Amino acid sequence: MTAILTKGHMVAAGIAGHLAYFQHGEHHIDRALRGYQDRIKVYQDKLVAQIASFGDQRVNVTKWLNLYSLDVKRDLAFGTSFAILESTDEHWAIKLLNEDIMCTLLEPYEETKPTEHDIKMLRGDSQLIVVAGSDTTATTLTHIFHELARNNEHISRLREEILLHTSSSDQVLDQKLHYLDHLHGVILETLRLHPPIPSALQRFTPPEGLEISQTHIPANVKVWCSQYAIGRSWLNMLSKLATTDRIAHS
To answer: What's the CA gap between 198 and 191, in Å, rounded?
Structure first.
């Protein structure tokens, strides 16, 4: 038995809990992010330099944003980068990781036929790998570039807003970003229209069932909600942009 949670269920039940969680931890998150700012700026400068080097030529922004994201994640996790923003080649560690994942999943079935249970487990593992391995940062940045290119009236508004919070060294300080309402609106509007994970992994309701927005869902029901559908519902009013500023194809 499967239930799809959409629209009012998500809006009524999920938002309050998420806001409470993020407000509680906001101070600690802000302090941690400020500590990473200088390290991330090194890769921001490299990314900007690479894109600027193309001049008036076409640029594969998706490629460069993916390279940028991989270098930043490697630095924050291990204290050193893959240096692929300079080399542009796929790092040997990434190739090895991809090969190891596939070999590990398929190795038990080299000489035996997987059972129905095995197939379900493989399907679940595959879903986890796709979701966990998908680069949400690069995907979102790519969609922001795409939407700004299609709606370039927002570019000048962003520039005006950001310039008010730029230091003498042309650096936008992290703590200032919290006050850039239009920037936040563009990010939220992009996430609404293009969630990096448009669907979701399925879950089962607990033995006692579940109450969502005065609707009872029985025990052992498979539930999931589509972020893509929710974001394009008229009930979704999370964006800080005014309704008239919403991107036209919503």
So the answer is: 10
